[in-house]
Amino acid sequence: MPYFNQLYAEKYTGMLKLARIYDLMSVNSVKAKVELVSLAYSLTSSGFRTIPLLTKIKAVTGLILSEIEIPSLNCYTSNEKAFNLLWILGFMLGDGNIYVRIRDTKAGLDFLPLFRINQTNTVVNLALYTKLFYFISSLPGKLSPIIKKQGDNLELHVFGKANVTSLMNMLAPVTSFIGKGGNFLC
């Protein structure tokens, strides 16, 4: 599928899981029901749930708790397809922020541009950020991204006028996809 081959991290594994759920919908077995419920529960982050997974599986299958074997869902891999600038632009527009910090110094005001993308701190997102870090670092312009852990979130930063200007100028050729193309910094 044209768009879905550019999904990464939890969105990519979510699409694989949804495809598997669709396949299992036509299978009428206890094992399929256990896998369906487990997959459905794994589509969202593991926060508070009104009904625990085992209780839900018991209600759907009629099994007693000691008979329930939760399937391993570690078989859902990440997308190994390389990033491209359109994907970076979409990720930035969808999940990122670009802003300017203004600091008062003895010499006057100092303007520090910052590009930041926040995601929940998960193993999958850390792997995505690491891959994104190396991709951005490899671009012309010698960019220096930073990955920070902020509480339950991961942040990828590109900080400073030279870094942010280089990043924006590299994305300029693909800005025609969002309407008015050209220099981001105008």
TrEMBL record:
<keyword id="KW-0496">Mitochondrion</keyword>
<protein>
    <recommendedName>
        <fullName>LAGLIDADG endonuclease</fullName>
    </recommendedName>
</protein>
<dbReference type="InterPro" id="IPR027434">
    <property type="entry name" value="Homing_endonucl"/>
</dbReference>
